[in-house]
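DM from R.C. (forwarded with permission)

"hey, sorry to bug you on a friday — could you get me a structure for this? deadline for the figure draft is monday and I only need the backbone to look sensible"
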Amino acid sequence: MVDGDVTSESNAESARSIETAENAIAATESYEADGGWVLFDGENPLAWIESAVTVRLDDAA
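My reply, with the result:
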């Protein structure tokens, strides 16, 4: 069922979203700790991710 109140992104908005995701992936750094990996924003090291499963960043975008 299509929701009439929901509009799709324009091409420009879509391109900005892709560029933002690519920039976020490029800025992501990591290190191994206690048998797992810590992912964090290289520009803001306090912004980190904890996960119980592994997901490729390319697949998450």
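R.C.: lifesaver. Residues 11-27 form the longest helix (17 residues).
me: no worries. The two ends are 25 Å apart (CA to CA).
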